[in-house]
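Board notes (copied after class):
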Amino acid sequence: MGTIQGSGLIPSFPEWAAIRLEHKEALHPALQMTADGVSEFTFSNLYLFRKRYNYQLSSLGGDNVIISGEREGKKFFSTPFACPPREVLDELFSTHSYWKNISESVLEGNAESLSAQGIELAEDRDNFDYLYFREDLAKLSGKKYHKKRNLVNAFMLAYPEHGSKPLTRELVGEAQAVLEIWRIDKHDEGDYIAASEALDLFEQLNMEGAIFYVKGRPAGWCLGEGVARGTSFALHFEKGVDAFKGIYQFINQRYAESLSESYTYINREQDLGDEGLRQSKETYRPCGFVKKWTGKKQG
C-alpha cells in the first residue's frame, strides 16, 4: 500500500486534500484489502458522498491514510487502515469532534491504550453493517425465509414477463429513468445525487450491478462492489419502482443468485437508527454485523 504515499496526491498530515477521482488508483485496491469490509471504506462510497460529508484525505505515511468529514455541523475523522499514534490523535481531536467508524481490526489491541489516553469508545449500533450469507439470500430456503419466498413468488406470478440484465453503459439511461421515478415516489432526495453519479461512473469506480425489468420496462436496479478481501459484496444502491409490488424482494433474491459464489457474504449496509429500516433488514435474518465504534476525547 506504499503506492498511496508515493502517489504524491495525498498530502502528509496535518495537511488535507479534498478527495478526487485521481485518488482511486492508490486508494481503491488498498481499501478493498481491509479486513472488516466497512461499507463506508470503499473508494466509490467516499467519492460519491464527498460533497455531502466534505471528505478530505491526509497521509501518515506508509500504510496509513486518515479521512476527515463533516456531519450535522460537526467534524469527524476516520481511520480505515490503522490506529494513529497518540500525538496524531491528540491533534485530530483538537480539530474534530469525534472519531467515526472505528472498525474491529483498527480497535484490536488498542482499546486499553486508547482508554488510558482519555478516549471513550462506544458501539455505534446505528451504523453496524448488516451481513447475510449470499447463499441464504439467493435461495431463501427454509421456514425462516418463507415470507420472503412468498413475496418473490407473488411478484413473479403477478409479472410473468420479468427479467434482468447485468448493468452496462448502454443501459444506464434506463436505470436513470428508474431513479427519477424513485425520487418522485419518495418525495425525498435521499441519496439521489450519489446514486445518479454512481450510474454515470460505475465502470470507473469498479462497481457492478444489474437492471431488472417488468414487461420490458425498467423496474429496478442495484450497484455494489467486492469488499473485505473479496469475501463480501457491499450493495451500495438498490432502487425500484414501487408500483411493482415485491420489486425489492425480487431484486434482492435475483441479484444474490447472480453473484459469484466466491462471495460468502452480502453487506447490505446500516440502518442509521431508522426503526422501519432496522426491522426490514432484520427480517432477512443477518448472520452477523460489521461492527463500528465511535471515539470521543474526554475532558
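Comment from the instructor: The chain has a mean pLDDT of 95. The first strand starts at residue 17 and ends at 18.
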